[in-house]
Amino acid sequence: MKKISATLIIFGLIFGIMLCGCVNKANSEGITQNTNTYIKEVSFSKIGSNESKHKVKNVILLIGDGMGVTQAYIAERYKQEVENGNLVILTKFKNKGLITTYSESSEITDSAAAGTALLSGYKTYNGMINMKPDGSIPKKTLGELAKKMGKSVGIVTTTRITHATPASVYAHVKSREEEDEIAEQLLEFEPTVAFGGGLEYFIPKDMKDSKRKDNKNLIEEFKKKGYVVVFNKKELENIDINKTNKIIGLFAKSHMAYEVDRENIDKYKDQPSLAEMTEMALKILEKNPKGFFLMVEGGRIDHACHAHDAKSEIMDTIAFDNAVKVALDFQKKHPDTLIVVTADHETAGMSVGTGTEYYANITALKNINASIEYMIKEISKNSTKENILRLIKEHWGIELTDDEKALLFKKSPTSKINDSYLLSKYPKINKYVRNWAGFALSEIESRRAHIGWASFAHTAVPVPVYAIGPNSEIFNGFYDNTEVPEKIKEVWG
Ligand SMILES: [Zn+2]
């Protein structure tokens, strides 16, 4: 294996010692072998106990992209204090497990390698979707297996439908960047339901907003295959379910809006929520007497964390939890349904509490009604000081302190970060926070709530798995992310 850094080896050794209590070969294969041996030893739950009374017909896999324990817990605390409620993912699932997330090329996975692990059950290099580094495809995806069993397949996400996690249901590519190709593979795969963003990869190059490199019109191709095609919430609500056997809904040019924007900014209100998409998907999928496999992704929890935008993270996690609630309600009426909720990795090392104080104030984010992404877009249209302060007052409901103003106006708000300290610490920081205003706003927001961030990228901490339904006790324990689809296959028989 190439590109194994000394750091990875050291991490691998520590990991190996922690897991096995012994030091094996200090190479990358050693890391994988040690971990896998351990996983086999601790993955104790097998089918056969009390919850097995129903056979599994339907499987709903819900993935919160970047949703580690902290991401869910902060949303839970916010929901308790502001909305007087609880997250169903933290309170309604009896069976819980913890999974490792490392990829074949790194201790820290990206969403493509993690999607491959969760949907196909094997490790690959970061950036690759359902393919090994040598180009081989050792296993079918859960989506492909469901189709082979005569079941319907649904894919619902808030990101582009061609983005890494949803693509892991149906695509095989060497690079997640090949979104033109991924869109064509979706057409070839023919899911029963596909809802998300990403219209730009389905319309010809000559059309406004297209990102395709050719003039293929995939929307027309879907129509030729008998698909109902919808582009907004109203069209989605008005479909005739009896007459709809296959449907694709593309509700945004690129990713769909953050939930905090969808709820509060007029121009995004024509987009359906993740829960609404999930509900409609289930109505269409349940028509198949052989059952279905549905993957639902809360895809922008990750994006909010990359940008250190805590309020957007909270609102997208609550929106994801609302989709889980829709799945749970369905499961109550259809007990032959297994629900598995997990994450592909944690993003940004989010923490409740930071610095030296024993203090956090999550409700300080209560009045923030627009994402940093939206604020940056508005600031780029008019970056005068008065306009920026007006935007903050209007959309964030706060008056900045003198210290916060000093930070925000220390540099030109629309400039790339040229702060030598930050650049030396985080060379790619502009990729995540876009410009100085993006960085300063994330600092202001996080400092007010005392929310901390260890990284701008993903982290390697294990993530939880929550399961309910027939045989869901086999998801208890500590194991590897590649075991998740294996366990689903086991309950499918
Ligand atoms: Zn991800």
UniProtKB/TrEMBL annotation:
Pfam families: Alk_phosphatase. PROSITE patterns: ALKALINE_PHOSPHATASE, PROKAR_LIPOPROTEIN. Gene3D superfamilies: 1.10.60.40, Alkaline Phosphatase, subunit A. GO terms for molecular function: alkaline phosphatase activity; metal ion binding. Its cofactor is Mg(2+); Zn(2+). InterPro entries: Alkaline_phosphatase, Alkaline_phosphatase_AS, Alkaline_phosphatase_core_sf. Keywords: Hydrolase, Magnesium, Metal-binding, Phosphoprotein, Zinc. Belongs to the alkaline phosphatase family. This is Alkaline phosphatase. It comes from Methanocaldococcus villosus KIN24-T80.
